[in-house]
Amino acid sequence: MSTRKLTDAEKTQVYEDIRAFLSDELDVPLEDIKPDSKILDDLKGDSMIYLELVEEFKKKFNVNVEIRVIGLYFQRHPVYTVGEVAKAVCDIVEYGDDLVNRLEGGAG
Amino acid sequence: MVTASDSLIRLNLPREWQHIAAGRLDLRALTDPDAAAQTFLSSREQTDWRTLAHPVRRTEWLGARVCLKSLVIGRVDPICNPRELTIEKDNRGRPWLCTDPLRQFVVGHCSLAHAATAAGAAWTSHPRVRIGIDVEQITPRLQRAAGAFRSPRDSSLVRRPELEQLAVWWTLKEAASKAWGQGLGAGLAEIDCAETVPGRHRVIHVDGRMLVGWHCAFENFILALCASDPVE
């Protein structure tokens, strides 16, 4: 069952909000954060930044997904770049706890 | 250039962990990263190192390997040159030390960590023990992320400031997830940390898996190490 469907405008806003968050948290100029910027290697992020991002957007969209489910999603769909993080956040908001099943075509 | 023997701080681990060596390094001591890279990195690692864009990330990556190889050199025969060591990953992404270029002699399971100005590394000579290490700076970020990693069953014996205690639990759980080779998939909030003796912990996943944990504090950092019983 889908949690909600994001419009293209909302997905773009998610991406821009992530850029702003990373710029602020990692002290990187906004113009240096691009879709293919690697969070760990190019922006000096760490594993905690992923959790902070997830917590931030879970609150923003009132989504309650277990971290274990998000971790499994990251294992099966490795997330390295800002663009990939934005897609992951959109998937988390849209599919919630059914994330792994829905993206692998399982029963949902 | 700073030599490893000058800057590496070997950690005093519990007596039953004689097969584990762990240490930490102040990354500010790497005043000549290019020279350190020449001394410590294999040719393949040097290539990988040069692909890292962010200068701080390059120092962290290098520092963790300087720390690890400094622990191992001189303890494992016939290896005496750090450039002969390389880190390979198993099918769960867990790092192993091997010789390079042949990558035929497995030195042992290892783990690396870095945060801000600190790097940490650990290595075990036991072929069936899995280890994980993590280091974290004590900052308010831990409060923001706490909802994602704290368990209601986390417990401590020592009364610590809130941020320091959060750092203890965070680093233990990160170290545990590295030892299990699962990253966030381990579900950090599904890992319980019970301090059994000050600085020592039982780290238990809700699915029953257990590790022994240990932590130390230095400057404004917490470093934690988790180790399994020998696995089949």
Condensed summary:
The complex is a heterodimer of chains A (108) and B (232). With 108 residues, chain A is an all-alpha fold.
Itemize the secondary structure elements and their pairings:
The complex is a heterodimer of chains A (108) and B (232).
Chain A: H1 8-26, H2 47-60, H3 67-76, H4 82-95, H5 99-103
Helix pairs in contact in A: 1-4, 2-4
Chain B: H1 4-7, E1 9-10, E2 20-26, H2 33-40, H3 43-51, H4 55-72, E3 85-89, E4 95-99, E5 106-115, E6 118-124, E7 131-137, H5 141-149, H6 162-180, E8 191-197, E9 200-205, E10 210-218, E11 221-227
Antiparallel strand pairs in B: 1-2, 2-6, 3-4, 4-5, 5-6, 7-11, 8-9, 9-10, 10-11
Please give the most extensive interface between any two protein chains, plus how many residues each contributes.
A-B, 23 and 27 residues
The H/E string of chain A reads HHHHH
| % residues in beta strands of chain B | 25-35%
The CATH class of the largest domain in chain B is: Alpha Beta
Q: Low-confidence spans of chain B: pLDDT under 50, at least 5 residues?
A: none
- State the shape of chain B: globular
Question: How would you name the CATH homologous superfamily of chain A?
Answer: ACP-like
CATH arch. level architecture of chain A = Orthogonal Bundle
Helix-strand category of chain B: alpha+beta
Number of extended strands of chain B: 11
Any idea what the CATH architecture of the largest domain in chain B is? Alpha-Beta Complex
Helix percent band of chain A: 55-70%
- At CATH level 3, the topology of the largest domain in chain B is Ribosomal Protein L22, Chain A
Mean pLDDT of chain A: 83
Strand order, largest beta sheet of chain B: 1-2-6-5-4-3
Looking at how many chains there are and whether they match, the oligomeric state comes to heterodimer
Number of domains of chain A: 1
By DSSP, the count of extended strands of chain A is: 0
What can be said about the biggest beta sheet of chain B?
A: 6 strands, antiparallel
